[in-house]
Known about the structure:
mainly beta
Amino acid sequence: MKRYRNRLVLAKIESVAGTAEKLAAADAILCSEVSLTPLVADAVGREVVRPFFGSHQQLPARAHATVQMTVELAGSGTKGLAPPWGKLLQACGMAETTSKSTSVAYTPVSAGEKTITLAVNISGVQQTLAGCRGTFSLNLAAGAVPTLQFTFTGLYADPTDVAAVAPNYGSWKDPLVINKTNTPTFSLAGATDLALSDFNLGQGNEVGYREPVAGNPEVIIFDRQPSGQVTVLAPAISGANLVKKAKEGGTNVLQIVHGKDDGKKVQIDMPKVALNSPTYGESEGIWTIQANYQPLPSAAAGNDEFKITNL
């Protein structure tokens, strides 16, 4: 009897896209809400004519697999050292830029996205997917642990019997709950005194699987359309009139800093945010304003809609 609870996830950046890397204990991913779809395939029907009723054979085509998981958003603990979730961001079309002893920043790219080898081991049965690329959402809610939720698509490989390695989670640091003390900075549209209730960012990558007749199968990122929602306790109109700003159709600067100590801070920057569709609501009897938003490219070269920095 194999227990589903006994699961292990491993991931490593590939030297050659689509070529599986050898995985070890240090490649373990500390995650939750893991879901492996072992086979995703198109069903090609054989609609042949026959002199009787009955189902037609379905042939599988374009076989691949997907993995979903959630990781806690916490810094590496050392300034200039990449956090362990950084490799997952790179496989979602994010570039990693390290400033020695200072910071590690992640910004979007529109070409040359890296790939990871991703393995899921369930009670000694392991499926290893090469060439994985994906998309993510970032979630911060007051009173909760900040998280990154990933969805990866990878090349299909048959599951095999593999004993799970003893994972090394040493690079994963304990997270901090979102609150006033642990999340000292939230500013939007020039207002620094807004009370943040909930924030999410969907990277919005369009990920697809290609299997050409000539050439190797691959997972590619076709496009990126990031968007999200932000909810704040309703401020005085003199502080930040979010409804008016949405009506005016301009753009605004957004920044969040979570964490207190060097190496453990995570900063989110969006230089050009368009607010739209604000609505009123309530949380525990307190009036709230929720608005959809879109982070837009700022520089002429683009690829700067948002930045995630470990400081």
